[in-house]
């Protein structure tokens, strides 16, 4: 595979490029599996990074993403707008349009987006908007603006993806529970795994899902959440052990409301870049039966993103 580049942009200091030459997963994905959380970055020369971005990545093009899809054995992708592109969805939409129907997307929009722009994104395959509350990634957007957007996209049958850190859930609870759509939480709401699966913090997240049947969770990003590793590198088949109980708990209690994604190209990782083949090998540790794997990787993402095919 070619090495990652960045066009004319200078990458954030210490930036880790995505892993080239991922291994062949040992875990055989079920037919029709969906990588339900991944991104494209640029290429910066074609789709410039947003002026308001908090990081400048290496490029990660649609061609590279779809090569990875085929290598790992996924059938489809859900491409989530990355914060380095702000509310300029052109790179993500371009990826959808050139996917041959194999990708759907999640956009970031502002209140100023027109109905015609929303409809054009729908026609390209966008099925959700992302609201981001992680302070290192985005500036604050007023909640009344987000609620107005949620009401508008609800009419298109879209859902809302939310990204936040576990400590912020209490403060965001009332807003989240008023959203009129299906609500999909990125990366299990980023639990602090060092606090343990029985912590009050994770109990609150489980309560959030239990009390609100419209809330789904991505059980993704062990490489981001793990404190102890070991990393998914060098053939490691037992990676990120400390994340397993968290993801397994969510998969087993809410088997019909979970999604999984690679999170390729893994923005902002600081200490290592995982081998995506070994990340796929993480899946059977958290979805331990063929029935759970089928729901996580095929039935759930298809119901949410390709309902017309179900
Ligand atoms: O934790 C992160 O840094 C991160 C960033 C982004 C993004 O910049 O969109 O997306 C993710 O899913 C995770």
Automatic annotation (TrEMBL):
Set out the biological process GO terms recorded for this chain's protein. 3,4-dihydroxybenzoate catabolic process
Report the catalytic activity. 2-oxo-2H-pyran-4,6-dicarboxylate + H2O = (1E)-4-oxobut-1-ene-1,2,4-tricarboxylate + H(+)
- Tell me the superkingdom of the source: Bacteria
Molecular function terms in GO for this entry? 2-pyrone-4,6-dicarboxylate lactonase activity
Sequence ranges assigned to domain Amidohydrolase-related in this UniProt record: 34-305
Keyword Hydrolase on this protein? yes
Q: Does the keyword Hydrolase apply?
A: yes
Q: Which UniProt keywords apply?
A: Aromatic hydrocarbons catabolism, Hydrolase
One Pfam family this chain carries?
A: Amidohydro_2
Q: What EC number(s) would the UniProt record show?
A: 3.1.1.57
Q: Which InterPro entries match?
A: Amidohydro-rel, Aro_Compnd_Degr_Hydrolases, GLI/LigI, Metal_Hydrolase
Membership in a protein family: Belongs to the metallo-dependent hydrolases superfamily. PDC hydrolase family.
The protein depicted here goes by the name 2-pyrone-4,6-dicarboxylate lactonase
Native organism: Simplicispira metamorpha
In the record, what lineage is assigned to the organism producing the protein? Answer: Bacteria, Pseudomonadati, Pseudomonadota, Betaproteobacteria, Burkholderiales
């Amino acid at each position: 595979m070619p090495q990652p580049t960045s066009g004319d942009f200078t990458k954030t200091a210490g930036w880790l490029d995505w892993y080239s030459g991922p291994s062949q997963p040992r875990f055989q994905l079920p037919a029709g599996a969906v990588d339900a959380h991944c991104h494209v970055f640029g290429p910066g020369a074609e789709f410039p990074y947003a002026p308001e971005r908090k990081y400048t990545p290496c490029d990660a093009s649609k061609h590279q993403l779809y090569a990875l899809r085929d290598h790992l054995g996924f059938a489809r992708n859900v491409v989530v707008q990355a914060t380095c592109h702000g509310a300029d969805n052109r790179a993500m939409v371009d990826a959808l349009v050139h996917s041959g129907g194999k990708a759907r997307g999640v956009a970031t929009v502002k209140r100023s987006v027109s109905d015609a722009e929303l409809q054009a994104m729908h026609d390209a395959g966008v099925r959700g908007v992302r609201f981001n509350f992680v302070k290192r990634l985005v500036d604050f957007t007023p909640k009344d603006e987000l609620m107005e957007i949620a009401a508008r996209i609800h009419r298109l049958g879209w859902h809302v993806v939310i990204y936040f850190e576990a400590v912020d859930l209490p403060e965001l609870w009332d807003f989240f529970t008023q959203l009129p759509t299906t609500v999909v939480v990125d990366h299990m709401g980023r639990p602090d795994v060092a606090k343990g699966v029985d912590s009050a913090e994770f109990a609150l997240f489980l309560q959030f899902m239990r009390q609100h049947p419209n809330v789904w969770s991505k059980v993704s990003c062990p490489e981001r959440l793990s404190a102890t590793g070991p990393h998914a590198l060098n053939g490691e088949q037992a990676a990120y052990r400390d994340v397993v109980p968290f993801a397994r708990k969510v998969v087993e209690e809410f088997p019909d409301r979970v999604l999984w994604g690679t999170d390729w190209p893994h923005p902002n990782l600081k200490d290592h870049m995982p081998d995506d083949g070994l990340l796929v090998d993480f899946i059977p540790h958290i979805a331990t039966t063929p029935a759970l794997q089928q729901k996580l990787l095929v039935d759930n993402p298809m119901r949410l993103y390709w309902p017309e095919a179900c």
